[in-house]
Amino acid sequence: MKRHLQTFIHYLSAERGLARNTLESYERDLNHYLAFIESLGVVSLGDTSKSTIVQYLLRLKQLGRAPATVSRNIVSIRAFYQFLLREKLIALDPSVDMEAPKLEKRLPKVLSVEEVGRLLEAPEPSGAGGMRDKAMLELLYATGIRVSELISLNVDNLNLEMGFVRCTGKASRERIIPLGRIAVRWLGDYIGTMRPQLLRRSKPEEALFVNHLGTRLTRQGFWKIVKRYAREANIDAEITPHTLRHSFATHLLENGADLRAVQEMLGHADISTTQIYTHVTKSRMKEIYDRTHPRAKIT
Asked: pTM of the predicted model, to two decimals?
């Protein structure tokens, strides 16, 4: 069964061209599913049924997994079985007609401009790690790129003289995003003075952001950094790895940016994905009105 999974992952990578994070998500979901059915004594995927899948989904719910996680697992399992059926590795697809539950669309959490300012000022740039973190947070808020794109950046993806960054997003789509003067300044200082201190001299490294071992910073490493600075900045709002991306988009739209331009910078294939931020701005506008208009609370 593991061999079939590796064949499926190779197919997703080589033929579908899915991003590394998406591949890891598929592989993680399906490894958990295979471990579950093995615990039931199942030795062949051809011996599974719709009941097997339902048992697994119930198990996920018992473990307290979020509806979005359960929904993603259904998508992964269905794609796996469809692949196995096409390759004639199974005779029947037990996942046929199984649909992922429709999820309620939640508005993304964003920080206020003042909260973003406090977060960006939290790193102490006098040391190598602090300078890296300052440059990293400034770049993230200046461009709105995904965390996976941030940690995948190499030094040669930057053109500080022209003021832009080139990054590769989902489905290997490449885009060019402008950089503000503040981000350019901190990135230049980090690359010129502090990044060499983090690198191991014996091993060249093309990654833009590196850890204390001189190797590419991981998503988990970045997440720990953001949480630490959020605590230091006394930010009570919920923080996720994408909070600065959401804040970037919302603040641009609040200040009159064109929706299509924001879509291009965020790397959204469908503009409807970008439009969620217009709902955020309307929601925030109502909050501000209710809080500040002298007659808003009169009954």
From this structure: 0.64
